[in-house]
Amino acid sequence: MTADLFTFEEVSYRLSRSPRRKRLGLVVTEKGAEVRIPQRCAAQHGHQFLRDNIAWVRDQLRGLERRQAQVPEHHFAFGARFPWLGKSLELDRAACAGDAGIRDGYIQLYCRNREPDDGQIQAALQKLYQREALDTLTRKSRYFAGLLGLEFSSVKVRRTRSKWGHCTIRGELQYNWLVCLAPEPVVDYLVIHEVCHLRHHNHSRAFWDLVASLCPDYRTLRRWLKENGHRLQL
After folding, report:
1. N or C: which end of the chain has fewer CB within 10 A?
2. What letter would DSSP give residue 40?
3. In degrees rounded to 5, what are phi and psi of residue 198?
4. 3-state DSSP call for residue 95?
């Protein structure tokens, strides 16, 4: 795929070609717009497609700006507070690596440096969150899978841009660890959602009925994640 950068009425956009694309398409991100066109499509058609949809592009960019303004700014220092399963916990310094963890209303963080800077605290905190998220999401996956008599092969956590969770055909459960910043019922819904995919690898009526059997208010929780997921940042 190739891409060139252009500007129209102060809106930056890229013209991206792909041999697999059949028709014109538009994608909007914080960096601007991307017009996706078939490999053999004349560039002028891509430019005109952007112009014809400039009002929609501007609306999308304004929405992204509003969402970005809602992302919390954290001060990475001991004594500051950070979210975990919907609660606000104080960041405390652990005496040794073995004491690091999230418990008793505190986030116990171990740093080797006596006076770590913000970047070092942030890196150590993210590493701790990933570890604690893996433990929490694995435990919840075992619990909900057990209720349905299902089994999975593994649980992994990572930071993804587009998905909060994924279940592979091999029974691997994958989660975005940032979901553990959300209220616990939202976390439970996500785990239930992915566990139910162990039985139904689709979003059929049977799948949603299975989700509802463990999470009757899944629609509310799914909506919360869709509307507030961009706030879950560390």
Report:
1. N
2. T
3. -65, -30
4. coil
Do the Cβ atoms of 54 and 11 come closer than 8 Å? yes
Beta-carbon count within 10 A of 98 CB: 8
The length of the chain is 234
Q: What is the pLDDT of residue 3?
A: 55
Residue 2: predicted pLDDT: 47
CA distance 104 to 108: 10
Instruction: Give me the pLDDT at residue 214, please.
Output: 97
Counting as low any pLDDT under 70, the low residues of the chain are: 1-3
Beta-carbon count within 10 A of 81 CB: 13
User: For residue 87, what pLDDT is reported?
Assistant: 94
